[in-house]
Amino acid sequence: MDIKEIIQRTNAFLMEEFEADPAKISPEANLKSTLELDSLDYIDLVVVIENNFGFKVNPEDFQSIVTFQDFYDYVAHRVKQKALV
């Protein structure tokens, strides 16, 4: 799975699950404020990621995720790790 496919899949479920405005989703946008995430939303986001990409998310990993690009890179890295196992 390449980064373009990851971005497309990620944006699709963000728009569906979190009713995100596609016009506001950009690599440099702040993930938390754009999606208006609270602590419960983060739990939902973890579940959606695990279901869509098939890997377990460590909650502490979100501490370093600020932008959508950070999020895409995280998912891409974890998908790549999963493929190597």
TrEMBL record:
Gene3D superfamilies: ACP-like
Any one Gene Ontology BP term: lipid A biosynthetic process
PANTHER family listed in its UniProt record: ACYL CARRIER PROTEIN (PTHR20863:SF69)
Similarity field: Belongs to the acyl carrier protein (ACP) family.
Matching Pfam families: PP-binding
Keyword Chloroplast: no
UniProt pathway: Lipid metabolism; fatty acid biosynthesis
Any one GO molecular-function label of the UniProt entry: acyl carrier activity
InterPro entries: ACP, ACP-like_sf, PP-bd_ACP
Name this polypeptide is given: Acyl carrier protein
GO cellular component terms listed in the entry, alphabetical order: cytosol; membrane
O-(pantetheine 4'-phosphoryl)serine modifications at: S39
UniProt entry tagged with the keyword Lipid metabolism: yes
